[in-house]
């Protein structure tokens, strides 16, 4: 489902921050991505989300060589990916409910077919009382949960999450991990970038570790 071959990445004329990255991840797999601050976790997620192109090497996603795809084809591939970024990217003029329901709206679905599902998920992530609030009045942890709910609501084929428990307490962190595990069991491949060793210790999963530009995989 995801194949990298000898991928290298540098920003501008800077040093190569990812070097000779080669790996293969199957559909429906679950993995943590870790490594010291600045090791390139966010950059690797951006390569996977196709918002960044590698400087060299091959990125193959859903069986497609990404370098050969048109802009429209890239946009279609991205629709199959849910992503939670560290800055959340919520739309400030829409309520929490509307933000989370956005993937369904983009698909052109009628609200009556998803309203219950969105409300149930908002309750599950502890935002049942905040559904009508606009993002600017949410706390950091509430924004993070809204971003997670939006990323998972339409059950994408691939979920990418950058420090998804960075702003919540350990109990809520466990609850969010359960959400990712359930999503994975229903067929989504999951990659969670995190520094949180306690979180990784809660679930026996493959670990991808970035160190000095290289990726080490521990099954
Ligand atoms: N847009 C950019 N332009 C130039 N350099 C960048 C850019 N984005 C990231 N970098 C550099 O690339 C390296 C990897 O950054 P990245 O954010 O991918 O690491 P990270 O492992 O996610 O870090 P953290 O755990 O602190 O979030 C860092 O040295 C960073 O300064």
From TrEMBL:
Domain ABC transporter: 2-217
Annotated compartments: Cell inner membrane; Cell membrane
Highest taxon listed in the record's lineage: Bacteria
Keyword terms, alphabetized: ATP-binding, Cell cycle, Cell division, Cell membrane, Membrane, Nucleotide-binding
Topology of the protein relative to the lipid bilayer: Peripheral membrane protein
Signal peptide residues on this chain, from the entry's feature table: none
SUPFAM superfamilies named among the record's database cross-references: P-loop containing nucleoside triphosphate hydrolases
Classification via Pfam families: ABC_tran
SMART domains attached to this UniProt entry: AAA (SM00382)
Molecular function per GO: ATP binding; ATP hydrolysis activity; transmembrane transporter activity
GO cellular component terms listed in the entry, alphabetical order: plasma membrane
InterPro entries for this protein: AAA+_ATPase, ABC_transporter-like_ATP-bd, ABC_transporter-like_CS, ABC_transpr_LolD-like, Cell_div_FtsE, P-loop_NTPase
Gene Ontology terms: biological process: cell division
Primary subcellular site in the record, as a coarse category: membrane
Quaternary assembly: Homodimer. Forms a membrane-associated complex with FtsX.
Function: Part of the ABC transporter FtsEX involved in cellular division. Important for assembly or stability of the septal ring. Involved in beta-(1-->2)glucan export. Transmembrane domains (TMD) form a pore in the inner membrane and the ATP-binding domain (NBD) is responsible for energy generation.
Entry's family note: Belongs to the ABC transporter superfamily.
UniProt-recorded name of the protein: Cell division ATP-binding protein FtsE
Underlying gene: ftsE
């Amino acid at each position: 489902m995801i194949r990298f071959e000898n991928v290298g990445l540098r920003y501008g004329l800077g040093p190569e921050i990812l070097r000779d990255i080669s790996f293969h991840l199957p559909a429906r797999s679950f993995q943590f991505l870790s490594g010291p601050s600045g090791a390139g976790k966010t950059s690797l997620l951006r390569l996977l989300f196709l918002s960044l192109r590698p400087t060299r090497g091959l990125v193959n996603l859903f069986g497609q060589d990404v370098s050969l795809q048109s802009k429209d084809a890239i946009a279609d591939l991205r629709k199959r990916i849910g992503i939670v970024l560290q800055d959340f990217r919520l739309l400030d003029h829409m309520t929490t409910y509307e933000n989370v329901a956005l993937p369904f709206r983009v698909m052109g679905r009628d609200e009556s077919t998803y309203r219950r599902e969105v409300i149930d998920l908002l309750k599950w992530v502890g935002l049942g009382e905040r559904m009508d609030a606009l993002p600017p009045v949410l706390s950091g942890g509430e924004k993070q949960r809204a971003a997670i709910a939006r990323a998972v609501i339409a059950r994408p084929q691939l979920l990418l999450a950058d420090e998804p428990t960075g702003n919540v307490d350990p109990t809520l962190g466990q609850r969010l991990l359960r959400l990712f595990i359930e999503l994975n069991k229903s067929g989504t491949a999951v990659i969670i970038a995190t520094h949180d060793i306690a979180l990784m210790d809660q679930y026996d999963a493959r670990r991808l570790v970035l160190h000095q530009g290289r990726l080490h995989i521990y099954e």
